[in-house]
Design goal:
The complex is a heterodimer of chains A (320) and B (280).
Chain A (H helix, E strand, L loop, with lengths): L1 H9 L4 H44 L2 E4 L2 E7 L3 H7 L2 H34 L2 H16 L2 H12 L6 H4 L16 H28 L4 H9 L4 H12 L1 H16 L3 H6 L9 H11 L3 H25 L12
Antiparallel strand pairs in A: 1-2
Helix pairs in contact in A: 1-2, 2-14, 3-14, 4-8, 4-11, 5-8, 6-8, 8-11, 9-10, 11-14, 13-14
Chain B lengths: L5 H29 L19 H7 L4 H35 L5 H12 L3 H15 L5 H24 L5 H8 L4 H29 L3 H5 L9 H6 L11 H34 L3
The chains are: A mainly alpha (320), B mainly alpha (280).
């Protein structure tokens, strides 16, 4: 585009012709752009927008698959039922606890890993990268089984390894109580997703201008001061994006809870509640209401992050 | 980088060992479990007392063979198809975003972002009902379509980042030489874009391979049930025997392709993951 405008100024005589040519070109570029991007765009809308609209529609009905003839339009009664039920609020609380604790731990662990990878000697980089990608790539269900079998009272070895710690003995059944089972769930979640957060932070670290840290070092700032006053402020955007992505991901947690406890002892999370209501109990009306509410929760988290913390998500792909 | 002293070397060795143990311990744990005989499972020890291959035998040639091999076939087929479709659509889309100027670029990227944070379970409920009505329940296609909601957004995002780094002057040069837009794209750009496309495909495949929610909600038999879902519904050789050993063996088998891809392409995967998130 820019060199056409440059020629514009050069050939003032042909100005009109040029202008027409430019707009023609812009038009054809627009057409081609949508022709190429359109299919992907439409596909994305088809696989998400349509289901959520369908879910909203279904949520306005009293509708059970076991009694399809008794379908009845009831406005927002399903939402009132769900929000008035203590189970929803209990599961909401559990989901929030998991989200807050795992993201906080992952941020610290991920940062430490990012610093290690950033400073690592060339010969070690490949090794560290490979190691860190294993948890990222492994199937969540497989990781859930690995943690479950390690802690399980029948097949586990954790109790006999850590028997010397207070509170752990041969008969400790990790999956029979709320806090022990939730701890193992969170540990597996943290193990699997820390690598992802550390890679995002590593990318952020590499964007901190080197001369700034060097200047701080020359001025006699300690390592901790450099971290706090130079590196972290310059990485704010990367940290925010990483936290938001992980928080939304943790809020949708399902796989490891399903495998380890299936929601027993009060460890049920919101995704599991939606699954149990729609797929297990075939309460399509109520399940759809829960699905829509979950979607609204995700929207609210994103909204708070973007507006409250000024997380600029699309900005990273803009410009250039 | 300064020359590292002996003490620094030791620190690095320690750190590396720590990271390796962190990353590989759960894998090693389930690996050890997969070689334990049923009587050995309750020993409370990490390693098997004597190593046995009977769990692998059970799922590959024994009583659980039908269950496991059919789910493996489903997983490979469905994940590959969902990856290929997503990468093809995303390649055109990312090219347009990186290369052309048209209104709505930001809308496409924002949509991709919104789709990638969508709670999967919110899509499952309505699809479960609709799929049963139109006969897509428990079919390959019935999983491939929703898998696109997982693979397409990340592919668009990652590929856009990759394509922004390609020297597009080459394409203009080709066009000056008389090639059409399409020819220039094919001859000058595709060879440069291929590595990015390939990396994106690996990441998309990981995500499809990992799916559990769609797998347990939209399938009911061996016709389309993928491995993660099959593991969750797996029962032992007899009702008196826990399926621990067989599940561990199956878990190790489906982890092998992941480990191989990571070993071969760790550099590309890391660059793909970080590029998609932060401007390269």
């Amino acid at each position: 585009m820019s060199h056409e405008t440059a020629t514009d100024q050069k050939h003032a005589g042909q100005h009109r012709k040029q202008k027409k040519y430019v707009s023609e070109r812009a038009k054809s570029e627009k057409r081609l752009g949508w022709l190429l991007a359109g299919p992907a765009f439409i596909m994305m809308l088809l696989v998400t927008l349509y289901p959520i609209l369908q879910a909203f529609f279904d949520s306005l009905f009293a509708f059970r698959l076991t009694a399809p003839d008794e379908r009845e339009f009831i406005w927002f009664a399903n939402y009132i039922t769900v929000l008035g039920d203590s189970v929803w609020w209990r599961d909401f609380g559990v989901t929030v606890i998991i989200t807050v604790i795992t993201v906080a731990v992952e941020l610290v662990l991920g940062f430490a890993l990012a610093i290690v990878m950033n400073k690592a000697i060339k010969s070690l980089r490949g090794l560290l990268r490979t190691a860190i990608l294993v948890p990222y790539g492994i199937i969540t269900v497989v990781s859930a089984y690995a943690w479950f079998y390690a802690f399980d009272i029948n097949s586990g070895y954790v109790n006999s390894w850590f028997g010397w710690l207070p509170g752990i003995d041969q008969d400790l059944n990790w999956f029979a109580e709320f806090w022990p089972s939730l701890s193992v769930i969170m540990a597996s979640e943290i193990w699997k997703t820390t690598p992802f957060i550390s890679l995002l932070l590593l990318a952020g670290l590499s964007q901190v201008p080197g001369e700034l840290t060097e200047a701080a070092e020359v001025d006699g700032a300690s390592w901790w001061e450099r971290m706090r006053k130079v590196i972290i402020p310059n990485m704010k955007a990367a940290i925010m994006v990483a936290v938001l992505f992980r928080a939304l991901d943790a809020f949708r947690i399902f796989d490891n809870v399903f495998i380890m406890t299936n929601g027993a002892h009060g460890t049920e999370v919101l995704s599991l509640l939606a699954y149990r209501t729609s797929i297990t109990r075939l309460e399509i009306g109520l399940g759809s209401a829960i699905s829509v509410l979950l979607f609204i929760c995700v929207l609210i988290i994103s909204f708070i992050a973007v507006k409250g913390f000024k997380v600029d998500l699309a900005g990273s792909q803009e410009g250039k | 980088m300064r020359k590292s002293s002996g003490r620094e070397k030791m620190w690095w060795a320690l750190i590396s060992v720590f990271v390796l143990v962190y990353a590989l311990f759960p894998v090693a744990s389930i690996f050890a479990t997969s070689f334990k005989a049923p009587s050995d499972l309750t020993s409370g020890k990490f390693l098997p007392t004597n190593w046995t291959g009977q769990n692998y035998e059970q799922i590959l040639v024994g009583s659980a063979q039908d269950l496991f091999l059919s789910s493996l076939r489903n997983s490979i087929g469905i994940s590959l198809i969902a990856t290929v479709i997503a990468v093809i659509l995303a390649t055109f889309c990312a090219y347009a975003i990186a290369r052309l100027d048209f209104p709505g670029k930001k809308l496409v990227l924002t949509t991709a972002l919104a789709v990638s944070i969508f709670p999967v379970i919110s899509i499952v409920t309505p699809l479960f009902n609709v799929w049963r009505t139109i006969g897509l329940y428990d079919t390959w296609l019935g999983l491939i379509i929703p898998y696109l909601s997982l693979t397409l957004p990340i592919s668009i995002w990652t590929l856009t980042a990759f394509f922004k780094q390609i020297p597009w002057e080459l394409e203009q040069a080709a066009q000056v030489d008389g090639a059409t837009t399409w020819q220039a794209f094919r001859k000058a750009i595709i060879p440069l874009a291929a590595p990015g496309v390939f990396t994106t495909a690996i990441i998309a495949f990981f995500i499809a391979w990992n799916d559990f929610v769609y797998g347990i909600s939209l399938t009911s038999t061996e016709a389309a049930r993928p491995v993660p879902a099959a593991l969750a519904f797996f029962t032992g050789a007899s009702q008196f025997q826990a399926p621990t050993g067989a599940i561990s063996a199956a878990a190790i088998i489906v982890t092998i392709p992941i480990i191989l891809l990571v070993l071969l392409f760790q550099r590309q995967i890391v660059s793909g993951l970080t590029q998609g998130a932060v401007k390269g």
